[in-house]
Amino acid sequence: MEGVQRRSAERAGPDNCVSRLSALFFVFIRVHSWLTPGVEVIIQPNKEAAASLVARIVGHDLRANPHLVLGLATGATMERVYRHLVRMHKEEKLDFSLCSTFNLDEYVGLFPSDPNSYRHYMDHHLFNQVNIEPRNTHLPNGLANDLDAECRNYEALMQRFGGIDLQLLGIGKAGHIGFNEPLSALRSRTRVKALTPTTIKQNAPMFGGEDKMPRRAITMGVGTIIEARRCILLATGDSKAEVIAQAVEGPITSMVTATALQLHARCTVIVDEEAGAKLKEKEYYRWIFENEPEWESYR
Ligand code: F6R
Q1: For a substitution probing ligand 1, which of 108, 124, 167, 176 has the most ligand atoms within 8 Å of its CB?
Q2: What is the sign of the dihedral through the CA atoms of 247, 78, 278 and 49?
Q3: What is the pLDDT of residues 165-218, one digit of tens each?
């Protein structure tokens, strides 16, 4: 009898309380992870289908929330996405009039009118062709006298707009997102970053040679990017196959800053067959797109 009383006293003691709390915590983590899918990979047959899927997700979110705050990327891969968005604006009346945008990055030292500036890229590929309010489009100012203050102000402005709802991302050949080159801290904020030789080589053709290319850029930090409510990374072509396999299935490392997206609660990586060629779990990813209800309306 005494033994029974002691055992029930033990059950009600601090150890029992700790185990109940940890069980509750476990349930919370499970429920949270059901609601937030983490990283999902979607493989599409070709570049066009992959870009169209990204544009349709943007269109869906913009229709659901006309005040959407969109994070935007530049680069060759994104041009197709913007072509689809422009078409959706013209043919399907996709309305950009209330949304706001923040771009990931801008070169230091280029005027907005410079054909290689990211402001020029965005105006040309998207802003001038849809009904977005120019004052709602934001890029870091790479000509600011005080670049550090510009970076702090850019962060503060994003906060004032309530943060990024949907962030579009490309990926560099060395695994950068934005211009977060290898060894960028995974908690980094918007700042000036020196470009690596790989990035300079990748982007030099647009400038007509490596010697004409800026060596620095302002970029949102990795920490800034992963605060977006949802991220979509688009990669196409065989030149991205190796880095996509590292980014999605490799260990998290600041040497490949895209690996930080593995920590994100809701990141969708969309690839074509070529960029997805080196992924180990291809069959699983295909199954997700073919069967999960979330993707039904996109199939
Ligand atoms: C550009 C940016 C970069 C590019 C990446 C891929 O704003 O943030 O991270 O997305 O370098 O560029 P492309 O698509 O030209 O291969």
Answers
A1: 176
A2: positive
A3: 999 999 999 999 999 999 999 999 999 999 999 999 999 999 999 999 999 999
